[in-house]
Design brief:
By secondary structure, the protein is mainly alpha-helical. It contains 17 helices and no strands. α3 runs antiparallel to α8. The longest helix is centred in the last third of the chain and has 27 residues.
Amino acid sequence: MSTQLPPSSLRRLLSLYLSLSKPRLSFLIVLTTAAAYSLYPVPALLLPQTTASPSLSTLTLVFLTSGTALCSASANALNMLFEPEHDAKMSRTRNRPLVRGYIGKRGALVFATIMGAVGVGSLYFGVNPTVAFLGGLNIFLYAGVYTPMKRISVLNTWVGAVVGGIPPLMGWAAAAGQSATASGGWEELLFSEASVGGWLLASLLYTWQFPHFNALSWTIRDEYKHAGYRMLAWVNPRMNGRVAFRYAVLSFPICGALWAFGITDQGFLLTSSVVNAWIVREAWRFWRSDGYKGSARALFWAGVWHLPVIMVLAMAHKKGLWEGIWQRLDGRAAEDELWMDEEEAASEPEQHVPRTLPVGPAV
């Protein structure tokens, strides 16, 4: 462990500051952002068949993912900075570096400030101003609204769900900015007809968080209560289960809308329904059993797998993906056949027609 290394060790220092960023949570956020970027329908003018350049910029994706990761690190570090005395009361947070005194508050503030500034700057100069605004907004919502609200109202969970829904909207806006036909401003990237897919993916992330978090919070509801965090799990356990079930059910129409608006193909309806049925079933058990009989743990793990599987399925069923693959394969097969015909024709020996001399009149 990093805490067993010498205090002056660079490896220890890097590991401690990395833990401030909540790397697993940040990775999930980056994954949803990149998935939304890849799901954006590429306009015909940018398809590989019509242009020699890549359809969507790889460099933009690098700036998008790195900038999003840095913004997430900043928000998470500020979250830890504002509540170490409360984190100390819970088993899942009592070993955080600020709680244990491994990192001072000044160091955490400097880290959060640098990560936020570089992250938003990367999104601004490497992607577009709209995505940079969303990245900065998420830092503010998570650290400035959600974090203090946890001790005030159970509505903090709804605010946290909004924070989780913004990253896929960032990925969509990043891709949309490369094919903007007008000014490329926030109105076009976020509120045009082409932005529907981004809002649907944001809605999917928003709804997913309720069954996942409500199940997690139920298992440690007494610790949340002791720490002073107002969570539905202990304030209103029955409502906690109902909310988890309601939002789990919403995954069906959202996935259906992704097909209806041409983001995914029809096969996504079938494959996503299997995964959605799983989390809905576990959410139903969680609600009807009031979290007991292992239902909370089952729903939590269903949530852990549900989101990444749905995102991967959406990318695998992207509208036109398989048609394009088959067209390329058919095109290459036709080119190979033509090339083989030309090779065979070139390898055949020339057939010489014997020349006959003209026969003239006998002299």
